[in-house]
Design goal:
The protein is built from 23 helices and five strands. Helix 16 runs antiparallel to helix 17. Helices cover 61% and strands 5% of the residues. The mean pLDDT is 92. The chain is mainly α. Strands 2-1-3-5-4 form a five-stranded mixed sheet.
Length: 462
């Protein structure tokens, strides 16, 4: 399992994105420099992540190693929780298969190398479903259910959209199955304790107990449909969410294969005496999927919003695979894992190449001001702080100064250095073995130069 995780991380590694991870970093730093910190924006109020990040920064210092450790930590937790869930339902073999599928699932690995709240939230929801679904009505069982509820509260603190999955607990309470109502009440008490605790903290710090929700609800007033097109194949709003599951690099073949598993009776293979946690998780996944689908103008159809559905699918698939013959089990696992790794290997591992090139130019010319796009200069703040330099400036450059720009839109002047875009992982492998000339030009551009090449230009002295 450790080897599979290392391979998946290597193939899918992106690292620092200079996006939300920089905002989580800002929140974590405030906990180190000015504690306690109530949070000032949508990201810094996600305390399960920012507090963990702050602890890692305190141990390893201000560097990108801390970013990587924080990201990988929650990746390991999610893989372990998924494996434990499956093992508890169907045995140890199902557990390691679920862990393997989770560890190599692109939607998981894409968030395992950059600091984000997605895996933290998913692990909390999954762990909560397991604890609540395996709780009884005795004293020990009710305490267990309360702990599961506390994890649900942690999930909400990670991202308020967790309530879409937790809405499934309402119908379960009404029908009183598959868990008793007393267990659900104990679960609700555990979640309330966490959320009320956070509200009291906000009240003590700011005088507004609901401050985090006010910030969250005003984060994005509207998402236009153009945002949904990023990475998705969309045809018609009523079926678009389903297309995200079936035709997307982040899920690969998962939902196609789990569809076959369910059609062949995979769900019925879950032992009845152990079916409760799987039923709870299935309800949560379905309700979350339906509500995100309905709210597609408020929430982008991003695969991360369907991660719970993917994890539920992994668990069902692991139970089904556990009952197949060794030959079929090995064949299907090999197909899923290899396709996952292939899909990750064609992704651009340097999506902020223009910013990276700007930092490299600044590091190579510490005695001169380097001009670049204002957005790239802004994103480079943390990278520049880590190398101890402050010689970046937004355009325009002074006469005779240095400018980093795309090679096909460079200003007049002398080209001092060129920064070609690194290839994708698959592109690097094909280049190493000498197969680059055989790749068709349209594909080659995306595989061997996924980002625009950048150049460092010294402008005319005027």
């Amino acid at each position: 399992m450790a080897i599979a995780m290392v391979v998946a991380l290597f193939v899918g590694w992106i690292g620092y994105m200079a996006s939300d991870d920089s905002l989580y970093h800002a929140g974590a730093v405030r906990w180190l420099t000015d504690p306690p910190f109530a949070g000032s924006d949508h990201w810094s109020t996600r305390f399960p992540l920012t507090l963990t990040f702050a602890a890692v920064l305190a141990v390893v210092g201000q560097n990108f190693v801390a970013f990587g450790i924080t990201a990988i930590l929650f990746y390991v937790v999610l893989v372990a929780v998924t494996g434990r869930f499956a093992a508890g339902v169907a045995g140890e073999r199902a557990g390691w298969m679920a862990a393997l599928l989770t560890a190599t699932l692109p939607v998981v690995v894409s968030h395992a190398t950059t600091v984000s709240v997605d895996l933290t939230e998913a692990a909390a929801l999954l762990g909560g479903a397991w604890l609540m679904g395996t709780s009884s009505e005795d004293r020990r069982g009710l305490v267990r259910a309360a702990l599961g509820g506390a994890l649900f509260g942690v999930a909400v603190l990670c991202r308020e959209t967790s309530v879409l999955a937790l809405a499934a607990l309402g119908p379960l309470f009404l029908i009183g199955r598959p868990v008793p109502r007393r267990v659900l009440i104990a679960c609700g008490a555990g979640a309330a304790a966490v959320l009320l605790g956070e509200a009291l903290f906000q009240y003590a710090m700011t005088g507004d107990p609901l401050r985090r929700y006010t910030i969250a609800f005003n984060h994005d007033d509207h998402m236009d449909r153009a945002a949904n097109m990023e990475g998705n194949f969309l045809l018609w709003p009523p079926i678009d969410p389903l297309l995200v599951l079936l035709i997307n690099d982040d899920f690969g073949l998962l939902f196609w294969v789990v569809g076959v598993a369910v059609a062949l009776g995979g769900w019925r293979l879950v032992p009845e005496t152990r079916r409760a946690p799987m039923t709870v998780l299935a309800w949560m996944a379905v309700v979350s999927f339906l509500l995100v689908s309905v709210l597609y103008t408020k929430l982008v159809l991003n695969p991360r919003y369907f991660m719970l559905a993917a994890l539920a699918a992994v668990l069902v698939l692991a139970v089904w695979l556990d009952r197949l013959s060794a030959w079929w089990r090995a064949l299907i696992l090999a197909a899923l894992v290899s396709s996952n790794l292939l899909l990750m290997s064609v992704g651009n591992a340097h999506p902020r190449w223009s910013m990276e090139a700007l930092v490299m130019a600044a590091e190579a010319h510490p005695g001169e001001a380097i001009a670049g796009e204002a957005s790239d200069v802004r994103r480079a703040d943390i990278s520049m702080a880590f190398i101890g330099q402050r010689n970046l400036r937004p355009l325009p450059a002074a006469p005779g100064g240095l400018v980093v720009a795309p090679a096909d839109a460079a200003p007049a002047g002398q080209v001092v250095a060129t920064y070609p875009s690194p290839p994708t992982r698959l592109g690097a492998a094909l280049r190493t073995i000498g197969l680059e000339p055989l790749v068709p030009a349209p594909i080659a551009r995306r595989m061997f130069g996924p980002s625009p090449a950048m150049v460092l230009v010294r402008t005319p002295a005027g």
